[in-house]
Design goal:
Order of helices and strands: EHEEHHHEEEHEEEEHEHEEHH
Distance between the termini: 30 Å
Shape: globular
Largest sheet: 6 strands, antiparallel
Radius of gyration: 19 Å
CATH architecture of one domain: 2-Layer Sandwich
CATH class of one domain: Alpha Beta
Bound molecules: adenosine-5'-diphosphate, magnesium ion
Number of strands: 13
Structural class: alpha+beta
Oligomer: single chain
Number of helices: 9
Length: 309
């Protein structure tokens, strides 16, 4: 059966100016291949700044830009202005989900379990027991995340974080099992457990090509009791909804020592490379990469139509 994307002209936006550029180029190429296999005319566009030029007759844009510019509402507002339909969330919810401080506020307001945290201005020191994690609010791929296990590590972590932002956050370190849950529409995909080498899912651990053969191990579906699985799925969906997300996302959590999931963050443009977590979770639910891309486009277009009604 022909896909509804057959013959459609789709611009796959990838690369971009963020620290996740390399990953995004790989996501873009995987998405473009998947769309081509559905008969679409997909072409990759490396979007470096606000001057986005889409060829005449482009039907829609598939956003595979991770991090700043692509995931934070910026490209969404440019596309809205041009009137080009695009995949993923709109400007406002993208911005909210990308900001770890704003997201944590929403989680707390909506009763979504998350690690206790404080926000800090330059010169302030976290009033939290050790260990804790210092984070730059608007970064991705572990680029602005610093573990502080002892006082000796504190000042360097704060200095590095404040070099990137005026307001940062520090949150309690949660010991436990690291899980991630893909959300597609209203559904939680099979849960993945990540076993990062060295106990921290760093940039090197995330991408095999930066650390040949040294990547984190994944297990999908994660080995969880029925009760744990239900709880993790419901917390992941609650996190997704608390940020008013409607299309797709990937929720990062830690199942703590009391077997309670604690949400770390929600990614609205998760990786789509051949080793990425969302395609892996989809595959475990018998959803191929091309079907996953098709679902993302369908949900995005339906959402757009509904908001125009
Ligand atoms: N509170 C925490 N407790 C334990 N580990 C954490 C905590 N926050 C982050 N981490 C580790 O750091 C990684 C990156 O943090 P995350 O908040 O997901 O930011 P991002 O993926 O956007 O860089 C996580 O995947 C996890 O391994
Ligand atoms: Mg993360």
């Amino acid at each position: 059966m022909n896909s509804f994307l057959f013959g459609k002209k789709i611009a796959v936006l990838c690369g971009g100016p963020s620290s996740e550029r390399e990953v995004s180029l790989r996501s873009g190429s995987a998405v473009a291949n998947a769309l081509r296999s559905l008969g679409a005319e997909a072409f990759e566009i490396d979007v470096l700044d606000d001057n986005l030029h889409l060829p005449a007759g482009t039907d829609l844009a598939f956003n595979a830009l991770h991090g700043t510019f692509g995931e934070d509402g910026t490209i969404q507002s440019i596309l809205d202005e041009k009137g080009v339909p695009y995949t993923g969330e709109g400007e406002v919810s993208s911005r909210l989900a990308f900001d770890k401080i704003e997201s944590k506020r929403r989680f707390v307001e909506c009763g979504v379990p998350t690690a206790p945290y404080v926000t800090l201005q330059n010169g302030e020191i976290p009033d939290l027991p050790l260990p804790y994690v210092v984070k730059v609010p608007c970064q991705g791929s572990s680029v602005g995340v610093y573990m502080v296990k002892s006082i000796a590590e504190r000042d360097a972590a704060l200095q590095q974080a404040f070099a990137q932002a005026n307001t940062i956050l520090a949150e309690a370190f949660i010991a436990g099992r690291e899980l991630t849950v893909g959300i597609l529409g209203e559904t939680a995909l099979p849960i993945i457990e990540i076993r990062p080498r060295g106990g921290f899912y760093s940039y090197e651990n995330k991408y095999t090509w930066t650390n040949r053969g040294g990547a984190a191990e994944h297990e999908c579906p994660a080995l969880l009791s029925r009760w744990e699985k239900k709880r993790v799925e419901s917390v992941a969906l609650a996190a997704h909804r608390s940020l008013r997300l409607e299309i797709y996302s990937r929720v990062d959590l830690i199942l703590d020592a009391n077997r309670e999931p604690q949400v770390l963050e929600v990614n609205t443009i998760p990786g789509m490379t051949e080793t990425s977590l969302l395609p892996e979770a989809a595959a475990a639910a018998d959803i191929s990469m091309s079907h996953l891309c098709e679902c993302i486009v369908r949900l995005s277009l339906e959402r757009r139509l509904a908001s125009k009604r």
